[in-house]
Amino acid sequence: xxxxxxxxxxxxxxxxxxxxxxxxxxxxxxxxxxxxxxxxxxxxxxxxxxxxxxxxxxxxxxxxxxxxxxxxxxxxxxxxxxxxxxxxxxxxxxxxxxxxxxxxxxxxxxxxxxxxxxxxxxxxx
Amino acid sequence: xxxxxxxxxxxxxxxxxxxxxxxxxxxxxxxxxxxxxxxxxxxxxxxxxxxxxxxxxxxxxxxxxxxxxxxxxxxxxxxxxxxxxxxxxxxxxxxxxxxxxxxxxxxxxxxxxxxxxxxxxxxxxxxxxxxxxxxxxxxxxxxxxxxxxxxxxxxxxxxxxxxxxxxxxxxxxxxxxxxxxxxxxxxxxxxxxxxxxxxxxxxxxxxxxxxxxxxxxxxxxxxxxxxxxxxxxxxxxxxxxxxxxxxxxxxxxxxxxxxxxxxxxxxxxxxxxxxxxxxxxxxxxxxxxxxxxxxxxxxxxxxxxxxxxxxxxxxxxxxxxxxxxxxxxxxxxxxxxxxxxxxxxxxxxxxxxxxxxxxxxxxxxxxxxxxxxxxxxxxxxxxxxxxxxxxxxxxxxxxxxxxxxxxxxxxxxxxxxxxxxxxxxxxxxxxxxxxxxxxxxxxxxxxxxxxxxxxxxxxxxxxx
Lengths: 125, 464
Prior knowledge:
The complex is a heterodimer of chains A (125) and B (464). Chain A is an alpha/beta fold and 125 residues long. In chain A, 46% of the residues lie in helices and 19% in strands. A 5-stranded parallel sheet of chain A has the order 2-1-3-4-5, with helices on both faces. Chain B is an alpha+beta fold. Helix content of chain B is 54%, strand content 9%. Chain B is elongated, with a radius of gyration of 34 Å.
């Protein structure tokens, strides 16, 4: 059974590229384009890894992560956060509320795939 | 400290007159050593003795004990304590001597220091504006997102030579689309930065669109003409149905017309402003369909421009009535109306200007405007009679309206519509204030307001 990645991202072109990359890397990718749907999807069918953009409509990425960490089903779900701001306070906020990794846009594809590989392998172990 | 200048001044004046310490001491009936202590600022001098010394030196007491010099002394003392000067070995104990002997240089030093402090404050304020400017923040975010898409797609093209033709074409298309979007953002940013140096010109998409509306006095005859035939097609009586139908008609019949019209307007230079102008002119057209100008103008005069009565008569929302009021041609019976809309955070999200009323772009407007008070009593019209620091008087009429979905447990969000009428024009309207109605002193925004003692001030003015 392939490892499932939930990609919560509202930029369609980034979704297309990341989906392609992750599928090539052997992952199964589910996509949600707003925070509320991403939260629901993560709780209903817990993925192996969550890739969560900060700037999402409906609920922002921080709020999604707060609620994910508050739920027993997903409190330890490995999560990579993405943001286009990259300021120190964004990173600190993400880490404070429980992100496992944090990458700023624009990113290198290899950086994202490596991070997801690492989160997936930690989960397996 | 306060007598420090006096001693130096006495010594300087005594020497000018060619008197010895002993002679002056004799004339004022004190000992020479005591006078010596006074002259070297080791003893205070005041009252009767100060008067005798002043008389003996042919001066007034004020010549010796000048309040402005005291202030200068305190200022220079404060400057000498600044951390940046602490290693210069400033002779802090000889400031009074500097003022006494070289008053011009002392004043120049204080003046230069004040300029430097003001310049630093201005830099800090502008830097704060730059880092908190919503347009710049949003633009940087959008640029980084576009760049992320381009970088990711181009790396895929480079790293996966086995891509199918369909995939390859798709990622090429993504790069193409994103570079166009990035160009538009860059163009808007370049215009913004270019124009930041000239505050009289439009600097954001909002400003560009406002410049277009200002140039047309908020009235677009081309759109009025184009919508005349569409008004007859509106048969619904319920406001929301009328609006939905008007929107569909405008989208269907006028979509291209409005886009072409915007493309021809010299005030609109950037893609972002084009989008905003199209949206606002589409709203203008919807208003024109629901409230055809001739009929609206006639009713507005008869109802003395009462926004709620007009909304009821035309089965329209108050917001649309406010917009239409700004499009009325001023006449002896018709005032010129301005309009603005703010959200709950206090940001002004739409402006249709009126002469003499400067609405701030980079800071919240004056918190005393009824624009910000109306959300305390939603769906209720509130009037405010105002006077600005310039002496300009306006009557503001504000009403908060609910936006977004409603239902139990859902948060209620409001925006406030506000019309502005000069007090001179107000008697033409139902909002004419009686003579005894309180005139509230308001300002434009704290950054540009000279009411220094205002209890509601939250930041210092940028320019004194």
